[in-house]
Design a protein that fits this description.
Structural class: alpha/beta
Number of strands: 15
Largest sheet: 6 strands, mixed
Number of helices: 8
CATH class: Alpha Beta
CATH topology: Purple Acid Phosphatase, chain A, domain 2
CATH superfamily: Metallo-dependent phosphatases
Distance between the termini: 6 Å
Radius of gyration: 17 Å
CATH architecture: 4-Layer Sandwich
Order of helices and strands: EHEHEHEEEHHEEHEEEHHEEEE
Number of domains: 1
Amino acid sequence: MRLAWLTDIHLNFVDNSQRKRFLESVRDRADAVAISGDIGESPDVGRFLVEMDEIIGKPIYFVLGNHDFYRGSIAKTRLQVADIAHRSNGLEYLTASGVVELTPDTAIVGHDGWADGRCGDFWKSNVMLSDYMLVAELSKWYVDFTLDKEHLIEVLHTLAQEAARHFEKVLVDAVDRYRNVIAVTHVPPFREAAWYEGKVSDDNYLPHFSCKVVGEVLEKVMQAHSQTNLLVLCGHTHGGGRLQVLDNLQVLTGAAKYKEPAIQQVFEIE
């Protein structure tokens, strides 16, 4: 199986013809596709997923990224996307799924994830992501051009913990049955995987660019299951890099540019 990995493709920034050419190129190079988030924005991500399903015509295993909830809400967008995937032939929304077999030796799991503010210095950070203004569950804590960080951090922790619980459940199931597991998430689960312009993000950006609690779960499970290999695919920072956490746990972070959707890598899976 040839599995093409995409991340941060931001299809809302490209025109119809460019989008069609890109999706056709993915179709021609892959037997299946994994997407680690940031496909579009809440009003159009469903339409893009349907279009991808129609043009690529092969299994698409995906999670959503922070941009996919812009101009909408996390809860409503997830419900909408889960319904679209349920009614499709090829879409698999991993956040709403369990362990999915790719081959007899390899499974795929995933969750959207969210930055949890635990790496770097959240309280001193002056970074203002558009998340905090354009996502319904977060924008309520942006008042008079000021972030209410005490309440915002509670929301971030809740979102991240949801992802951590999901990964613990599906990973424990997967490692008992498969020799290789691919985990797809949007936000880098280790501070050292939050690459940007060739280096790890600094303490100002790390609170918004990494999810510590998910990383802790991944590391704990894989330490206890040395017979299984875990490959984590993530994005979010738009900086590419590779991190070897354990002998059996590797993280790839995808590089990206707006208006230039690309295939990150094609994996040969036996």
